[in-house]
Amino acid sequence: MASIMWACWDGGGNLTPSLGIARELTDRGHDVQFFGRPDMLGRVAAAGFSATALTEARTDVGRYSFHPLAEVFGYTSSPSVGVELVGVVSAFTPDVVVIDAMFSAALDVAPRFGRPTAVMLHTLFDSLWTMWQANFTMQSESRVKAGFSSLPPLESLWGDRDLLHVNALQEFDGEPATAWDHVVHGAPVLAVESRAVAVELPWASDDATPLVLLSFSAVAEQRSPEMLQRALNALATLPVHVVATTGAIVEPTELAVPANAHVVSFADHDVLMDRASVLVGHGGHGTTMRALRHGLPMVGIPAKGGDQAPITQMLDGWGVGKALAGDASVSQIRSAAEEILSDRTFADEARRRSGALEGCNGAALAADSVEALIQKTASQ
């Protein structure tokens, strides 16, 4: 049995797959413990894992007040958090440290851990290489503006670690963007959390009316009741039923819910996707790959996640969806949904693409990579 420390960023598309991989590792006899923001404690505990809040998680947030995502980068790139993590590793002495790919403060101090380190990326790598470089340059510049030292380049933060495991299919990611030999592609980790509950819909199960699933981000930094409302308004006049999930970052009472819609905080998306004809979403990798596994065509309206706009463009290029701008209007959303509902080629292509995901167990593949790193280190 190995002890595994997970340096966590609890973003919407990050924590859920991390918990799925941790479950697989635990089932294999390993001990996984999470360290991160206090915000993640409840979700990790609900999944049955140990979680410790970093006391420095908010120490530097105020110095990032200039940034629209101060709460994010004031944690993920915080030098104070990095220093605390060095102390945690020294006290915990894990066999391996798994670091969320966006957690630049942890990546920065990883050489001081004295332990093998694995970077866990929950979306595309090669096809987004230029975007990732720009993102980490932005993080470094933000650190300097906050009064701290800059970050090393991405070629060091990711490139110098022992393993970079990508929870995405290589065939979806395109040609390799680097010559790194420590990059391993697996598959999407389509885990579910306890809050993904079954919901009782107000329509009969044999109702032939097309169902549209409306689901945006579940992370507070991407909260947008305005976008949810525009999407609800766009679908209100169509002959469809609508189920909207808000991720509890928008209260259903904040929305004017049309007669053809049902709004809930959380729901089991797999059950709804089995029944749905279209997904209207933000283009996050996890939700997108889950929908594609169900052969579900999509309308993509990206929020603030760096990978969301490129993913929606990819779907558009494949012919499995329509990509809209983040500020898409009611008429644009309505037109995109109408086009997908009236043209079966979108659903046909989504079903064809779903074959690539059939039988893929992303959590098992990621666990294989972590175990291989542990075994390699033990044999040295």
Strand and helix layout:
Layout: E1 3-7, H1 15-27, E2 31-36, H2 41-46, E3 50-53, H3 70-76, H4 79-92, E4 96-100, H5 104-109, E5 117-121, H6 129-145, H7 154-157, E6 163-166, H8 170-173, E7 183-185, E8 211-215, H9 225-236, E9 241-245, E10 261-264, H10 269-275, E11 278-281, H11 285-293, E12 298-300, H12 308-318, E13 321-323, H13 330-342, H14 344-354, H15 362-379
Parallel strand pairs: 1-2, 1-4, 2-3, 4-5, 5-6, 6-7, 8-9, 8-11, 9-10, 11-12, 12-13
Helix pairs in contact: 1-15, 9-13
Which descriptors apply to this entry?
seven-stranded parallel beta sheet, Rossmann fold, 2 domains, 380 residues, six-stranded parallel beta sheet, alpha/beta, globular
What can you see in these coordinates?
By secondary structure, the chain is an alpha/beta fold. It has 2 domains: 3-188 and 360-379, Glycogen Phosphorylase B (Rossmann fold); 211-357, Rossmann fold. The protein is built from 15 helices and 13 strands. The chain has a 7-stranded parallel sheet, sandwiched between helices. Strands 10-9-8-11-12-13 form a 6-stranded parallel sheet, sandwiched between helices. Helix 9 (225-236) crosses helix 13 (330-342).
